[in-house]
Each structure stands twice: as structure tokens, then as C-alpha cells.
């Protein structure tokens, strides 16, 4: 049982109202934590602190900021096992996955500890002999980072590590389902020597009130958000009132194209790795599987065999591969998608059932890893994001049809393809309207590469050298020699 307050201006404090809310283990229903429930006044205190701390943090040398981030990385790695247990306990993903996420999250801190020293300016040839043109890159200011429950560590560090490296101060608002990982991370940043006010943490059950307060405050110069497309659009509209910088990593509906020359077992392995990670609760996981008609049956059998072998249960138990869905609403949505598909003619190759179990605070919700065949375009699974462990398989006849089907969505975050033909791989990758394309690779995300989407999957990029640019302003200085 962990208890945390808000972290504002270098101090852990209760919410002004004294209110708290409980955090539950989605695999058992047990209460595993209690955190402060922030109000508008608490958010304004955090903005005050971040605004005061900004000039001092921005004025530090890149080397100084780099050294603090490097210490934070070392501490994350040293505390990896503890952080992973916290994450599994509040989020549900299997412990091995949680350990992988903590390392991935730490990788962003390491990358940007190094990238802090590579924020370069420019000189441009002037039009007159007595002038010089300089271009400076300077931090945007106070950044509000709003993060989701499905990756409680990586989505925080992917945002705040580049912001801090650039010289910005930050306010973190984690999802109400998974605040404990965020709290422990902030403790680590504190231990690493982060000055007061540079990193602030606001936990709360009223997400809209907290977001609206930060959006309305002109001192907050950037919003960075990962979550649903619907909420992202609302943030985008409200950010316009104060013309804030905004980065949005939103929903996805990733296709996975399996061509006739593919190694069927290898393709099934990559689809399973992409689709069933975190019980299908990821924005880049495979949502639609398009397989050449000549190999559809053997591929579905190979994928189903892998799915059927996956143990479902509490992520802290040995051998568990599929953890719980986050809540009842998530389970009901997955169940609805499978029911709709079956009613419209889909065939369940394996799985297909919701596994609700008694928890200490009511039912907890699991779902069998599921493979559907004979899927048609009118089924919910082919045009809504399921966010669960369901792999719908549809066939195609040729490359053109596969690309057309893959691009027939308002989303454009991640797409995958499996083929041995290099020319086809290049042609198809260039034709896919997605920000991330994995060729024979179902898990392409790394700290040093840009992550982000096309169309309604978002704006901006996180990760790599591109990620730090999102937190920098460009200043043009014209100097006349007198």
C-alpha cells in the first residue's frame, strides 16, 4: 500500500482540499495505493512553481541538465525491479512486460541526457556585409504532460526527458488508474538532484478540470498528450485560445499485411507479439490482420496456436502472458466487438470469451486472446479501435488491395508488413499512410527513433532527435556591426 501527495515546488504535499482517491489492482480488485486528489487551486500552485523555476533551469548549461538526467537514468535502472512490480500491481501487465517498459522508459532519459548537449544553433549568410544572422534554439517554457494508463512509465519519460533536456520545466498529470508509477518516478528525479519546481506532479480524479486549468493558463506554453483521438481534439481546440504548442499522440488502428511469400510461423510470431502485448491495450498494436488469400488458413492456424498457448491471469504470477483489461468498460467493449463480428459471420478460431473473476472490490476483467477469421468490412473490429486481445483476419488478392484496405481509416499511427521481397517491402512501406512502419518487425519502437502518426493519430513526434525539437522555440537574431 503506497500513499502519495502532490509534488509541487520540490515538496510532497496533500491536496488543498485534503481529498484523496484509491488505486486498484485490475487483476485482483485490491486497493494498492492512495494519492492526493488535486483541485484547480492545486494545479495553479504547480504552474506557479514551474513558472518560477523556468528561468533558472533554462539558464543551466546543457552539461548540467545532462548530468541530472543521467543520474535519473542510473536510478531508474537500479530500481527497475521495484518499478516493474509497482506498474504490474496498478496496471496489470505481466511482470516481464513491465520490466521491459521500465527499461524502455529509462532509455528515453538516457537518450535525452545525451541529446541535451546537441541543441545546436545556426549562422546564415547575411544579405549585407555589415550584418550577421544567428539562429538560436531556446526552450518553449512550462510544459504540461498528460499521460495514459497503458504505459505508466514510458509515456512520462518520453515527454518529460526531452522537455527537461531542452530547458523546460514540467507538470505531469498521470492517468487516475496508474498514478503510483508516476509518483515513484518523480521520487527518482528528486533523488537525482532535480531543482525544486522543475518537475511537478499533479494526481487527480477529475482529469477534465485539471486539463482545462492548464489549458487556460497562458504561462503553460506547451501541452503534450497521449490518449484518445476524441480527447486530443478537445485539447487542440482549447489550446488555440492561448496559442499553445501542442503534441498529440492519439488513437491507432494498425494494419498488419502478410504477403504470400512470408514465412508463416515468423509472421504469426510478430503479429502475436504486436497484437497481444499488454492484452492488446496499446495504441500501436495490430488491430487488423490482412493476409494473402493463398495462405489465410495456415496463417490463422499458426496465429491461433500461439494465442491459445498464452496464459491469462495476474501479471505477478509465473508464466502469465495476458494480464487483465483495465476495467469493466474495456472488457465490455472487447466483448461487444467479438459478438458483433460473430453475428455478422466471423469465425472464432480460438478464444472469444470474456473471463470475469471475483475480486476484492467486485469483478475483475480478463479476455481470452482471440483470433477471428472470415472478417468483413462492416464489423466493428475493422473500423473501431478494440483495445483488447482480438486479432481479426481478412484476406486480400494483391498488393494494391492490401494497401487500399490498410489505408482505409482515419487513423495513421503504425502499420506492419511481412514479406521476403525487398522491392515490395519498400513500395508498400512508402504507400502506407502511417507515421511508423514495421517491415518484418512487430515491435519497432525505440527511444532513438521518431514516434508519431499521420491523419487523426496525432501531431508531432516523440523520441529521437526529432523529439527534443518539439520543446524548442527558434529565435532569429539579426546583428548589425556598427
UniProtKB/TrEMBL annotation:
The keyword Oxidoreductase applies. Pfam families: Aldedh. One of its GO terms (molecular function) is succinate-semialdehyde dehydrogenase (NAD+) activity. InterPro entries: Ald_DH/histidinol_DH, Ald_DH_C, Ald_DH_CS_CYS, Ald_DH_N, Aldehyde_DH_dom, Aldehyde_DH_Superfamily, Succ_semiAld_DH. Keywords: Oxidoreductase. The keyword Oxidoreductase applies. Residues 12-477 form the Aldehyde dehydrogenase domain. Its EC number is 1.2.1.16. One of its GO terms (biological process) is gamma-aminobutyric acid catabolic process. Belongs to the aldehyde dehydrogenase family. This is Succinate-semialdehyde dehydrogenase (NADP(+)). It comes from Kyrpidia spormannii.
Amino acid at each position: 500500500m503506497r500513499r502519495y501527495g502532490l509534488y509541487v515546488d520540490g515538496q510532497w504535499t496533500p491536496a488543498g482540499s485534503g481529498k484523496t482517491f484509491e488505486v486498484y489492482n485490475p487483476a485482483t480488485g485490491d486497493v494498492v495505493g492512495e494519492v492526493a486528489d488535486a483541485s484547480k487551486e492545486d494545479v495553479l500552485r504547480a504552474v506557479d512553481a514551474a513558472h518560477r523555476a523556468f528561468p533558472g533551469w533554462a539558464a543551466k548549461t546543457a552539461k548540467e541538465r545532462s548530468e541530472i538526467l543521467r543520474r535519473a537514468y542510473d536510478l531508474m535502472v537500479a530500481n527497475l525491479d521495484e518499478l516493474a512490480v509497482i506498474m504490474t500491481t496498478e496496471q496489470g501487465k505481466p511482470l516481464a512486460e513491465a520490466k521491459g517498459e521500465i527499461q524502455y522508459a529509462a532509455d528515453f532519459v538516457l537518450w535525452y541526457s545525451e541529446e541535451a548537449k546537441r541543441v545546436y544553433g545556426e549562422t546564415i549568410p547575411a544579405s549585407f556585409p555589415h550584418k550577421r544572422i544567428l539562429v538560436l534554439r531556446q526552450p518553449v517554457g512550462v510544459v504540461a504532460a498528460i499521460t495514459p494508463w497503458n504505459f505508466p512509465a514510458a509515456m512520462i519519460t518520453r515527454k518529460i526527458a526531452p522537455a527537461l533536456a531542452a530547458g523546460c520545466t514540467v507538470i505531469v498529470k498521470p492517468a487516475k488508474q496508474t498514478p503510483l508509477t508516476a509518483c515513484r518516478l518523480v521520487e527518482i528525479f528528486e533523488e537525482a538532484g532535480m531543482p525544486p519546481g522543475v518537475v511537478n506532479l499533479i494526481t487527480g480524479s477529475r482529469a477534465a478540470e485539471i486539463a482545462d486549468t492548464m489549458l487556460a493558463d497562458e504561462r503553460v506554453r506547451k501541452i503534450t498528450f497521449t490518449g484518445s483521438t476524441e480527447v486530443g481534439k478537445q485539447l487542440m481546440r482549447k489550446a488555440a485560445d492561448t496559442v499553445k504548442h501542442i503534441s498529440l499522440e492519439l488513437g491507432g488502428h494498425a494494419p498488419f499485411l502478410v504477403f504470400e511469400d512470408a514465412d508463416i510461423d515468423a509472421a504469426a510470431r510478430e503479429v502475436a507479439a504486436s497484437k497481444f502485448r499488454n492484452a492488446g491495450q496499446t495504441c500501436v498494436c495490430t488491430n487488423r490482420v490482412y493476409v494473402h488469400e493463398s495462405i489465410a488458413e495456415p496463417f490463422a492456424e499458426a496465429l491461433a496456436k500461439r494465442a491459445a498457448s498464452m496464459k491469462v491471469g495476474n501479471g505477478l504470477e509465473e508464466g502469465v502472458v495476458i494480464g487483465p483489461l483495465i476495467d469493466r468498460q474495456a472488457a465490455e467493449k472487447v466483448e461487444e466487438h467479438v459478438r458483433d463480428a460473430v453475428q455478422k459471420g466471423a469465425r472464432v478460431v480460438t478464444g472469444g470469451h470474456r473471463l470475469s473473476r471475483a475480486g476484492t472490490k467486485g469483478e475483475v476483467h480478463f479476455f481470452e486472446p482471440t483470433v477471428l477469421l472470415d472478417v468483413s468490412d462492416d464489423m466493428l473490429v475493422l473500423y473501431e479501435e478494440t483495445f483488447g486481445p482480438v486479432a481479426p483476419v481478412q484476406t486480400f488478392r494483391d498488393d494494391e488491395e492490401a494497401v487500399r484496405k490498410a489505408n482505409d481509416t482515419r487513423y495513421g499511427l503504425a502499420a506492419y508488413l511481412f514479406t521476403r521481397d525487398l522491392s515490395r517491402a519498400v513500395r508498400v512501406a512508402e504507400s502506407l499512410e502511417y507515421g511508423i512502419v514495421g517491415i518484418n518487425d512487430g515491435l519497432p519502437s525505440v527511444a532513438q527513433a521518431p514516434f508519431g502518426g499521420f491523419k487523426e493519430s496525432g501531431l508531432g513526434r516523440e523520441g529521437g532527435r526529432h523529439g527534443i525539437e518539439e520543446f524548442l522555440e527558434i529565435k532569429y537574431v539579426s546583428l548589425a556591426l556598427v
